[in-house]
């Protein structure tokens, strides 16, 4: 059983076989040189120290070779995105054919909806979570309007029940059971950004497919946090950013997954550019468009190598450690965090994230009574970096790559005094 003491937290750090990873990141510091207590890896992951060297390599090769770097660089830029595919596929539980790194998240959602949101006059509605991330909501609303539908009428929200915070899968089942004939697409956050709830993706795919609806998953809060096993889940598509748990830097490129069952379907509607044209004949130029199989068949442009170099630096760390080890530490770290918070004798805060480790990633969402934002402000003044999400939640994500049990202990000690 856990204990609420500094000694015990330090003991857990000693026993943690991933504790050496922290030193491989830059941890922001206060003016006195103390490490910040950083709990916002769910918003922007910290910088691996080796990132600089990966980017520098490409700058050097650009300086040295100019355009010839596409073939002559130590890591040739022509196939550079392929260097990321295997590691990324492992992280989300996919086959390499099913994954590519390209664009940014919302852009990828749109490109995927070009192919997988094919509404008819009667079957056109889209289901999202009632507190879906705003960008996802805007994206689906604009897709509805683009196809000539009313954005309000065409959107179905899967809501928590009255007086509850979390979603129940039976409620999604009921929606799809009753209205499935009108629903074209389910687009659901695999881990909800607000509550931290990790939904049963496989079950969602089964529910949608039973009524011939396409199923897409936003994994912004899942990739590098939980192990979504995308291939086995059977979902049609997914997308995620890499600057949160995947530590690739602000605004960096995103991941895209298209299930193998669609890999060779050349009939799917999609947008085209030279980068989803057959690799073998791409540079023969005056060729008719011939789409590539798999996820690469959704690319449009030649990608930004400097951003990909940063992703590669991070993925190499994930490759070395592996998701199973990270996930094992994560369950323990967040479990300890939860335990410590539950020791505080107060009714001013409440954790709304599921207590079952199988139904959450590393994040805990702490709901504050009367939406008192000053608590978050005071945490920040104490160099505890969390984030406030309207209407009333402080999100805290202890990340197994670089957060320690001591971080979590110190954070809760300060939280206690503030309450
Ligand atoms: C972070 C996040 C986004 C951000 O989208 P970008 O296109 O990368 O700016 C979108 N959706 C969800 C669910 C997110 O968590």
Automatic annotation (TrEMBL):
The keyword Glycosyltransferase does not apply. Its EC number is 3.7.1.3. NCBIfam families: kynureninase. It comes from the Bacteria. Coiled coil: none annotated. PANTHER family: KYNURENINASE (PTHR14084:SF0). HAMAP family: Kynureninase. Belongs to the kynureninase family. This is Kynureninase. Catalyzes the cleavage of L-kynurenine (L-Kyn) and L-3-hydroxykynurenine (L-3OHKyn) into anthranilic acid (AA) and 3-hydroxyanthranilic acid (3-OHAA), respectively. Homodimer.
